[in-house]
Amino acid sequence: MDDLIDASREFFHLPLEEKQKCSNLIDGKHFQVEGYGNDPVRSKDQSLDWLDRLHLRVEPEDERNLVHWPEHPKTFRCVVNFARIGSICFLIIAWTML
How far is the C-alpha of 55 from the C-alpha of 23, rounded, in Å? Predict the structure, then answer.
């Protein structure tokens, strides 16, 4: 889990241009959930909470849209895969103990 936190932290410390390669905007204007960016502003009266986020589909594996997955840091994809496998193993162990 520490490796996942480190890889995520490293991603968010990258220059904006690098993070925007994983943008959640199609053609710079149409919002989609997956990718890097901010939540859309739906109205002019909306309270704004600034946050950067990276939303990725991890499961099921065959539905991953790797276009939105960071290429940097180089360890990111491997660490996410390892954390996913670790979570599955933990769930199996917990289930067998019931």
Answer: 10
Angstrom distance (rounded) from CA 14 to CA 30? 24
Joined together, the tokens standing for residue 14 give 């990258």
Q: Look at residue 15 in the predicted model and tell me its pLDDT.
A: 93
**Quick one: DSSP state of residue 46?**
P
- Phi and psi angles of residue 33, each rounded to the nearest 5 degrees, phi first: -70, -45
Give the pairing type, strands 53-55 and 35-37: antiparallel
**Prediction pTM value:** 0.68
Examine the pLDDT at 65 and tell me if it is beyond 60.
yes
Residue 39 tokens, joined:
């939540």
